[in-house]
User: Fold these one by one.
Assistant:
Number 1:
Amino acid sequence: MTGSTSWKRTRVNKPTLRHYGSRSAALLCLLLISLVLTPLASSQGLTGKWAGLWRTLDNGEEDPMYLDLYQEGSKITGTITTIGHIWQVNGTATGNRFEIFFSPRDKKPRVTGELAGSELHLTREDAQFTAVAAKPGDAYPPFEHMTLPALHDVPPNNLAALPPMGWNSWNLFQNNIDDKTVRAIADEMVANGMRDAGYVYINLDDTWEGVRDAQGNLQANHKFPDMKGLADYVHARGMKLGIYSSPGPRTCAEYPGSYGNEEQDARTFASWGIDYLKYDWCGARMLYKNEDMQALYQKMGDALRKADRPVVYSLCQYGNAKVETWGAKVGGNLWRTTGDISDTWTSMIANIEKQVPTAPYAGPGHWNDPDMLEIGNGGMTDEEYRTHMSLWAVTASPLLAGNDIRKMSPAVKSILLNKEVLAVDQDALGKQASPTRAGDVETWVKPLADGSVAVAVVNLGASATTAKVQADKLGMPGQAFSARDLWAHTTVPLQKGTYTAALASHGVVMLRVAPANTATKQ
Ligand code: GLA
């Protein structure tokens, strides 16, 4: 699977004018050259098969890019294949320059470039590289489909009675994560009280992977020289270690996935002392359809069970194929309900709204996951991060911090460590709140195990407004109520069963309301 070295960057040989003796001879030559070349370029343009070395992965594997393009006028269509993905692409050419999009949803082109003589000079993400005409055989060998197992119910592993809490490396660090950073994050989570507040999983996301050894055992790459040692370190601090893989041959970031090696990888993870697996669909798209998801996730569910170590199983397939209806059957403890979150108000709100229809499927042992937290990553205001935390708590969502724990502002720390809000998320009843909407104001109500309810009133609008909480709309019997404001940490009056408070744009008022004789103090 590694790329051939023939795709290395080649130099453009530009003709130099001094070879032609005089200025006029040079101009004549230029004219002749352009007469010869122009029809060729405009009739062919980008059309053809190209190959170039895009990048080298952190495990040393080369990731060549093969482009099979067709240009008609300014329109470009075709396929771009890398080590882990096949993209049906569309793009536009303007003169010799072009931009290529992988999906109509892309806001920016994924690949840009220039046709320079017989080469393409390409830019993708931070990498600039050259592609040349592909030679016969320049393609990734096809993968074989595995026979998919018949569906059956994987017995529950009895883990995750409450929504999992911890930290994950992806949202902020992406591929810039290593053993040293993870140990420092674990230490800080002990020191700052996060572990004791319940954040116990330290989850490595994509790009930890090395290559398989001669026996097919997947190794970690140079960033994680001693995975067992890292797990021991995390365990010694009373925390747990999570890892990431894919049902596909490659992960989303194109590192080796568990395709065809499920049992062996589950055993490897168990031997390292792994406690949590996030299993990400992405790279399986090359081979399988959404209808195949259940069988492929079941395969790893069975493999984890056979490896005989308690491992929380987190399905990551962006909420496709109605995962909430079968996630628990494949042994899943949580499943993503959405695409990837980003650190913006719009993305955060879109993710939580997308989770709404899945509410009936949340409960002890199996949770809907609107993706990891962005709190503290800098793209939202503290007000918006309070709303983010409140919404994740009332929906009983997993709470996986995604920021640099070592560098938190006091405000961010107080948001992640608000124990009254955490208690709502971690309530034993495990109910996922659903919202009602009036104008820009949404009210989310979550019944709690002690008979009280948590209410989050959120202002989606651009102007300040008033939050109104009415006890008779919370499904609570009786006349007298007591309430805690979970962000102000005060007891608030519910006169005649109603509480009103100022509500900032994108802000939240979060209460815990109980019949008056029930203690609501934390
Ligand atoms: C997908 C997942 C993300 C993250 C990346 C890693 O995009 O949805 O949460 O795991 O892959 O490559």
Note: The first strand starts at residue 48 and ends at 56.
Number 2:
Amino acid sequence: MNTSTLDALRQALPGLKLLSEPADLEHYGRDWTRRWTPAPLAIALPATAEEIQAVVRWANLHGVAIVPSGGRTGLSGGAVAANGELVVSLERMNRVVGFDAVDRTLTVQPGIALEAVHNAARERGLIYPVDFGARGSCQIGGNIATNAGGIRVIRYGNTRNWIAGLDVITGSGERLSLNRGLIKNATGYDLRHLFIGSEGTLGIVVEATLALTDAPPPSQVLLFAVPHMDALMQVFGACRSRLTLSAFEFFTDRALHHVVAHGAQNPFAGISPYYVVTEFDAEQEAQQTEALAVFEYCLERGWVTDGVIAQSEAQAKSLWRLREGITESLAPHKPYKNDISVRIAAVPGFLHDMQALLSREYPDFDVVWFGHIGDGNLHINIVKPDGYDYAAFIAECERVTERLCEVLQVHGGSISAEHGIGLVKKPYLGSARSAEEIALMRGIRTVFDPNGIMNPGKLF
Ligand code: FAD
Ligand code: MLT
Ligand code: ZN
């Protein structure tokens, strides 16, 4: 640890809460990737936007790199601090600071957990619709910095759609109020959108105004057993054309194996290669009857072989656990994660090419597929065999990811759908963005962060 730098910070900002015990450095220096050894300088826990601004200004003067840190549930290494950076944790800034019933907006500090945002919206008779498994620990600032997606994108879109205003401290220490909750604002470049998905490389989100919406009508959850890959998108087509969907997710038998080993209940007696969990509006009996008709239709065509419709909220939760529990069930194995997307129309062709690639390149590894197939977003997790050297395993997965990029390029897809580039996907950015685009992005980064102190080494 560089004690003189830390002493200088203590002297410059005596009121700032700082942690520097080894256990703190380890805890705050990593995210869910667990691939890098945490080694931050220290952890700053500011309580106000003014304190953040002072920290950023001090860091500029002393050439100290900053890693903005949310709930550290990130899966790409964006919040990893492994090179003596100052981690700026937003966890103390976790309050709702305003609600406007006319605008239907909720203004929050960046460190509020996604689930707390859901609760705050519900208490006010509305919803904040972005949702996914890490809801209890990820923070809205992290969601904004990664443009998080999740299980409701099919209906509501990504985080980007729900950000009405942002307050940020740029890498050079200026405070900007971007868009201020306006629905219409045709005044040139919308800098708010540059910050969404910028992975902490342009500055720190210090306040966000979130758009809320009406709660959807009561819904039902259906789990299908799907006998072959082509049927996945056929079932999707049938469901989407006849039901009002709020989720359409899939997973494979290998994913089911892991999540059941982790405590989830499999409602089926037999094994199927694929499964779909879908949720749809079911306020009226006619909608429920239509769902059964869709099931019959798919059954007759051999697109599904079995199905369960949740009869209670508890059963709906238990069906959802089969999908949402997968990440946690795999985490002890430290899987190598691909988070890829293609256009919905390209999914069937892409699935074939991808399956051919993965069975050719990973003959001995456990390959676990799941994800938001209704958005064209697949999560491919590779599980390290016991006894296989970890570094060799990562090298092998990186080699195959190069090939995967080629397949993605053929189908016009992306190497990161929703988790961000961070450290994990940095080598592959050029497969999804042109050299000209990357040069422009670098230029933008320099405008907001001329001294390069914001999350250096991430994204590029
Ligand atoms: P962190 O991991 O702390 O940080 C992520 C990035 O944001 C880093 O680059 C960090 O520097 C930056 N950052 C954090 N806070 C700020 C701030 N205030 N200002 C500027 N930059 C900041 N993601 C999805 O998109 N969809 C899913 O379905 C999904 N499911 C998940 C399920 C599980 C079980 C887990 C563990 C993760 C899942 N994720 C998912 C990934 C992760 O939860 C999201 O990327 C989430 O948005 C990260 O939020 P966080 O607060 O944990 O951010
Ligand atoms: C999910 O959809 O469950 C997440 O994005 C997490 C993951 O990919 O592991
Ligand atoms: Zn996901």
Note: The pocket of zinc ion (ligand 3) is lined by residues 371-372, 379, 418 (CB under 6 Å).
